[in-house]
Amino acid sequence: MNDRKFRVVVAGAGVSGLFMAETLKRARIDFAVYEKAGDVGGTWRENTFPGLFVDVLSRQYEFPFQPNYNWSRKYAPATEIWDYIKKVADDRGLRKFIRFNEEIAAARFSDGLWHIETAAGTKDFADVFVCATGFLHKPMLPEIDGRESFTGPSFHSARWDHSVPYEGKRWGVIGSGASGVQITEALAWAGCDVTQFIRRAQWVHIRENPYATWRDKLKLRLPGGYAREQRRLWEQINELDSWRLYPGQAREQMEREYASYLDHIKDVDLREKLTPEYNLGCTRIPKSDRNYYEAIQLPNAHIVKGSIARIAPDGVVMEDGTHVPLDVLVYATGFDVHAYMRPMNITGLNGVTIDEAWNDKIYSYGGIALPGFPNLFTLYGPFAPVNNVPVPLGLEQEIGFIMQLIGEARRRGAAVAPTAAATDKFVAKLDAAFPGTVWVGGCKNWYTSKQPTPVLWPFPQQQHKAFLEQVPVEDFDFIPTGQAK
Ligand SMILES: Cc1cc2nc3c(=O)[nH]c(=O)nc-3n(C[C@H](O)[C@H](O)[C@H](O)COP(=O)(O)OP(=O)(O)OC[C@H]3O[C@@H](n4cnc5c(N)ncnc54)[C@H](O)[C@@H]3O)c2cc1C
User: Fold this and answer.
1) What is the C-alpha to C-alpha distance for residues 208 and 372, in angstroms, rounded to an integer?
2) Ligand 1: which residues within 6 Å by Cβ?
3) Does the structure show a pLDDT above 80 at 415?
4) Interval 287-298: pLDDT, tens
5) Is the pTM higher than 0.85?
6) Rounded Cα gap, residues 431 and 361, in angstroms
């Protein structure tokens, strides 16, 4: 047994990586965070497009260890979320643990340790390796003929080019998901000539986004006020979203409510074009706080529905031959959601790589660990509750479980991985729960990959909490390492 300190390496300094970092700091465990970019924030650093705001209540997007009494609005603009994340890194003294501009390219488990290598060739090692690399992180561009031929500025929504002025340009936005909706709405209200290209209609949540009043802020600062308000929020969450999981009256009522938002559209043809043909909630629901349906009826806004045949040097050509001339093209075409920590090259026991392990289907135990990859943990990995539990709450549960596992493994001088049998059982339990949920059968969505069931958590949030509350040690293999405890 050597006498060096037990050490953890974390990849990524977004919300997940910072939560992990603060937890390790408090536990007095030696650790380092590698972040491939020059600042913290992940999603909120990278997505700077107009109209972006957080789609859960701002107060649900707080780290439990850092209350914020000053959100400006019910759903904060993205810049404010990023400012909050940066403040957390500063206030908690986390920056000194982060190696910015260093991308982890590979990690290999051998001799009881993770051997880590960055893209620049720096080598490091860790007893435990935590991937906090995000699930909406790798921008995806569509395979459309002629994409490279467009002569104006063109960029993915997560790579917004702020040097392009809004005014006097004909903007094209490809995509009808949350980003496409928010960008189109913002450009339309800004008076730009904007055309949104959609293949199918989306359900859109039209909602108010009031500014916080001094009264709201004061309520939080009164003795016991913050705890009282947080409790009230969590009670609400527990009641929410059962309509996604179980068919019935609640789902029907929600669909009637969302269908009523379409009444904002006066033109019958346009309303029909934008009326979805699948169950509400089957895709992630775009949220609009400046009435998208009003925005797209402005004379400067246009919707083109159908398949794009090709991109021309001066615009977009549809399959029916329509040519839409454009000056700027935005790809709001989403992310490679099933990449997780890849393209990082991870090799576990017996030389098996993550690509090989996930060749047939993507899986995990509880969204956090994989058989054959000891002391490797993922935050918001496959089957994490990306759609029905606010991210900070989900992280609190995942990280609590991971810390228990690390503690148990250290006590035993071992590295820990879920057994293949326990993982199969976990996945089978989830697969069996999907029929009846809103995510299967009705539509193509980004939760589904090659595998027949979505890579999601198909239970209420209380069940996520219950599942991760206590480690069932029998579900895990403990492999002696002979390394530091
Ligand atoms: C446009 C958009 C809007 C969203 N809106 C909401 C919302 O309203 N509400 C909500 O709950 N969620 C939202 N999300 C989901 C959002 O991604 C999560 O809420 C959360 O930010 C995820 O945090 P994360 O730290 O897990 O991942 P990320 O924020 O993606 O951070 C991952 C970090 O890891 C770094 N990294 C990746 N690979 C490596 C590597 N190999 N080496 C070193 N560093 C690496 C990245 O640079 C990045 O900084 C949104 C996502 C997008 C894209």
Assistant:
1) 48
2) 11-17, 34-37, 42-43, 47, 54-56, 103-104, 132-134, 136-137, 179, 344, 379-380, 390-391
3) yes
4) 999 999 999 999
5) yes
6) 12
